[in-house]
Amino acid sequence: MRTAALTCLALAAAVAGLVATATGARSAGRRRHKEVFLGGNSKFKFGGRIDYKLKRQDSTKTLLIKSEQLLRIEEHDFAMRPGFGGSAIPVGIDVQVESIDSISEVNMDFTMTLYLRHYWKDERLAFPSRNNRSRTFDSRLVKKIWVPDVFFVHSKRSFIHDTTMENIMLRVYPDGNILYSVRVTVTALCSMDFSSFPLDTQNCSLELESYAYNENDLMLYWKNGNDSLRTDEIVLSQFFIEHFHASSGLAFYSSTGWYNRLFINFILRRHIFFFMLQTYFPTMLMVVLSWVSFWIDRRAVPARVSLGITTVLTMSTIITGVSSSMPQVSYVKAVDIYLWTSFLFVFLSVIEYAVVNYCTTLEEMRKMKRGKIPSSFNASQAMAFDGCFHDNDIELSPFPGMTPTPLTSDPLAAPTQNPDIRPTGGTRLRRQKSVWENVDLLVSNSYMIDSYSRLAFPLSYLLFNVIYWSLYS
Questions:
Q1: Whole-structure pTM over 0.70, yes or no?
Q2: Which of 228, 259, 263 is nearest to 154 (CA)?
Q3: Among 316, 290, 288, 315, CA closest to 303
Q4: What does the pLDDT read at residue 16?
Q5: Is 246 helix (H, G, I), strand (E, B) or coil?
Q6: Does the structure show a pLDDT above 80 at 403?
Q7: Are 443 and 363 in contact (CB under 8 A)?
Q8: Which pLDDT band, with edges at 50, 70 and 90, does 328 fall under?
């Protein structure tokens, strides 16, 4: 009985084994068939370039899988600088200037975008490496280690670019050397001197310094000397960059001590052609236009007055426009000297006609008293005459003070001696005119004022321009 039961169990186990073997064989056959089928189709579709390994091994899944574990960040206190308690840690700096975005005369500042790179050694971050290759990280690891606290002195605004991620790069070498690079835009103060504006040259500088660590803890220096400062091709609208150079020095604070400071110096020379078109040429034209009134008849009052007022108002507009775009400095600029001197020439041309008009009125009143002009003559109409008046038509009175010597028939008679005339041997007798006589001559011949002005004004303005451009250019 027992033997029969055991025999039955053995037969059942044998049958189950045969079934399992057959099922496994069929499954293996199906898998092989599927692999062959997929492999053939994939080869046909992708030209044979396929990795048959269905599951690769992730290269970051090593024994030291995390950067913190590789660099042993948790084992050290990175709130302290490297080599704390010893000598100052040297931090090399190099800068690549990408662009100078703007320069503002009103705010006296400039905006610059640059790549700021730091170089130092932190043995706490040294790691073993078989191929001696560096490892590069982004801003997520920077927040967990020590980095130099370099800031921009006299900066008004600054920020690190963060599109699409923060523009920060950290590169760590196996021996502990570190490269830390950021892309930053900074707006800094530039003390400008506008005494020669717009013929000026400005010297601006961007200054770098550690905020917390003085020279006993941190030593800033240019990593490659003068070659540490690199610039791309920078083109500005109003300035020409003459020179870029790097320098260094020390800054002292009474409460914290001496700090290393690095300077990025650049010299800017202003383009003059823009101001020649916008300021100098229009000013010259207004001054020359004011001289046209000297060739207009002195009786044409509306023409000469309107021309003088128009040039004065135009000069006032030019001066106001230039002043509104400049800082309110307490000293005189070169452009102010030119504009106000030109304004004075325009104003004097108006005053010149006022003098001519007044002298003409006096001349006509005198002629009316002498009876040379009929009493029915309308002086106001004459002053509004439209230009047909001719100075040659005036009957001029003889020059006062010169009495002609009467001719006598007696050759032996002695001529009457005038006490104001002193004889000189062999020369013509001439009496010097007093100031009042010269003024009276101009009043009697007012047209001479215009004649003299036609020559005096252009020569004076030409002399002023020669002196001005020789001094400021």
A1: no
A2: 263
A3: 290
A4: 58
A5: strand
A6: no
A7: yes
A8: confident
